[in-house]
Design a protein that fits this description.
Layout: E1 2-3, E2 6-11, E3 14-20, H1 28-33, H2 41-46, H3 53-65, E4 84-89, H4 92-98, E5 108-114, H5 119-130, E6 136-140, E7 146-149, H6 161-171, H7 175-186, H8 198-215, E8 227-231, E9 237-240
Parallel strand pairs: 4-5, 5-6
Antiparallel strand pairs: 1-2, 2-3, 6-7, 7-8, 8-9
Helix pairs in contact: 4-8
Bound molecules: zinc ion.
Residues 159-160, 162-163, 245, 248, 250-252 line the site of zinc ion.
Amino acid sequence: MAGPDLVHLVAGEDVRYTLTGKALETWLPSLLAACDGRQSVETLVADAPAARRDDALSLVDRLYGERILVDGDAQAAHTPQARQLEVEGAGPLFERLRGHMGIATLPPLALLVQDRLDPEAALRFNERCLGGDRPWLWVSTGALARGYVSQVFLPGVGPCLGCLFEHFRRLTPTPELHDALREHARQGGAIPAVPFPTEGMGMLASIVDWKVAQLSLSEPSPALYRLHVLDATSLEVATHRVLADESCPWCGADAA
Ligand SMILES: [Zn+2]
């Protein structure tokens, strides 16, 4: 609800916020309406009158701080993209997926396949992808008891692979193992590959192919942007939604 120099934010019958400022009613309602999770703050603010952009930025900052505005997720930002795998990594699943790369006619979807528990290599891959303009995906059988196919990560929106690793760290009773493995790898230490059932690898490869196909659809399954977890013993598959982590050292607010 807008009036001279003010905008009320209303939820149900309650006025939750009253924001005031010179001529606020002329630009703020359209800016808030455009906050659909698909555009960056920079793009949204660029549509405000030039003289009001600083006000707009500080207002967005305040509303974000108070969780009135929240980050858009990858699903909201989805646009159909026909892409083909560009695979790196090692092991039998890597060999298998490398055969799915096809002839290079489509733009790439970067994929790292890991057959060992090597978070350092995964995070270096994530860093490279964060600096690029193509989506990325991570597949691992390194946890031995479980195989993972990550959600498709998109540049500039939603979680990154670092967010997923932070999620794992919070769940594990031994987060120091993750740090010790990274340090071991940084010192040049070898990390051995681990075995995984062949049938399980086939299922992980199928999930990867399915995600590549889903990425090209205008209305993909929400599972495109979910983590798939395959139990190596029972071959049961579950999916999990992993959100962007504000404290993620790679893509979060304080990322270098
Ligand atoms: Zn992140």
